[in-house]
Amino acid sequence: MKLKVFVSLLFVAMPFFILAQDKPNEEPKYGWQNEVIGGINLNQTSFDNWSQGGENNFAWQLNINFKFINDQAKTNWATSGKLSYGESKTGDLESRKSVDEIKLESVLTYKSGQFLNPFVAVTGETQFIAGYTYDPKVQISNFLDPGFFRESIGVGYKPNDIIQTRLGAAMKQTVTDKFTARYTGQTDNKIINKVGAESVTDVNLKISESSIFTSKLELFSELKSIETTDVYWDNILTAKINKYFNMNFNVKLLYDRNISTKRQLKQAIALGLTYTFL
């Protein structure tokens, strides 16, 4: 992936800068703003002497998203996370996991200006339990095997409540145990550290009273290999049917040359139950 791809991906968020309008000045509200939302999606089909054929199947997925923000006159400390796990079972096959994700982020921003502000940030990502490929069944991952961590410092830009982006110097660690070769390309070093540049852009766009679009684009380029860029792009469209039920459409794109020379793409649509705890 060439450097121009890195630049072009940065421009993905540019329309939001153009379309977003500043809101009139309002009296700031300082203090904690907390939100925890949990949801579960279920899907089940059963057949008995069904002439058209088919296989019994059952699938479930649990999602928990949280955000804790301490906003003060000179600082903003935002900690957010995403926890997802799900399994599916078809016919006589054993239950297999379909989703497994732990993602955490904490960003401390110092308010030095109206739009541009320095920040320090820490992110981490791994999974809950072992992952497998099948036919034959072979384990290929586990908790913190791999695990991905980043620490960064730089300048953030937030023109309004719809979009915010940050750019800075960063370090990235890939942590492994039994599957070192698969995720680092090496055989004897279980922790790989990279130094480079990071860009993170968040979009939170309320389309209507009952639907919202969120997008998170994370880019990391290693200094000694600037033409190779790691990409994490997660897009979610949520439409609320009523107080407890909603529909989610999720498209996720990943690229990490240490794992695969090709991009990874995942798409999912789900109808499920959601509940706001805070």
Low-confidence stretches: 1-23
Structure summary, number of beta strands: 14
Integer count of domains? 1
- The CATH topology comes to Porin
Please state the structural category. Answer: mainly beta
Summed up:
The protein has 278 residues and is mainly beta.
What does this molecule look like?
The relative contact order is 0.14. The protein has three helices and 14 strands. The model is unreliable at 1-23 (pLDDT under 50). It is mainly β. The chain has a twelve-stranded antiparallel β-barrel with strand order 1-2-3-4-5-8-9-10-11-12-13-14. The N and C termini lie far apart (42 Å). The protein has one domain (3-19, 33-46, 55-276): Porin (Beta Barrel).
Question: Which labels suit this protein?
Answer:
278 residues; mainly beta; two-stranded antiparallel ribbon
What secondary-structure arrangement, pairings included, does this model have?
Layout: H1 3-10, H2 14-19, E1 31-45, E2 57-71, E3 75-90, E4 96-110, E5 116-126, E6 131-133, E7 138-141, E8 147-157, E9 163-175, H3 180-184, E10 191-208, E11 211-222, E12 225-240, E13 245-255, E14 264-276
Antiparallel strand pairs: 1-2, 1-14, 2-3, 3-4, 4-5, 5-8, 6-7, 8-9, 9-10, 10-11, 11-12, 12-13, 13-14
